[in-house]
């Protein structure tokens, strides 16, 4: 079967398409091949392209294998919602690699409204859980960056010092690899925390630890009130996106 680039372009430009709109699988085999500067996923021998019709050249074995496995795992229809590594790789090639600096700049901006700075006032069990699990990362980041972060109760905005934001930006400024930058930005966006993403990048946290910290409030609520099937599906997909972000960071 032939690779239809127009179908793939429309598909990955609109990954939230209804299932009835998803195209049928048109290939038998997904395999890996070499490219001049990396690796490519081949569908029946034809290289996968991005929505912008660029060659999807991948930087290492780990990312290449993950994307090959996503294509191989597709059933009767191709569902980009189940292909987080392919989606993020498309973003890297079509956008991030063209101008990585603005993407990297988004990460320290999260320190202005970081998840870990905004604490519950009640009940006591949630207050204590946040203190026990979030405080060590705040302390670690404060020591790493040699700054002091301001915590608050509730959701009213609390201003962080200009020095702390500059120190955060300086810490990540040496990162130039667009694949790492894309992973770091996605981990920050999904977790709502630049500190959690930084701790993952710096290997202070493992992937599961970082994900659990970002989900602390949701997990606390689920323990008490339960979680419906739709919420569980959303959580699983967000976790897959978070794990993909870590993969792109080499974590």
UniProtKB/TrEMBL annotation:
InterPro entries (alphabetical): ATP12_ATP_synth-F1-assembly, ATP12_ATP_synth-F1-assembly_N, ATP12_ortho_dom_sf
Example GO biological process: proton-transporting ATP synthase complex assembly
Gene3D superfamilies: ATP12 ATPase, ATP12-like
Pfam entry (one): ATP12
Keywords for the protein's UniProt record, in alphabetical order: Chaperone, Transit peptide
Protein name (Swiss-Prot/TrEMBL): ATPase
Native source species: Fulvimarina pelagi HTCC2506
Superkingdom of origin organism: Bacteria
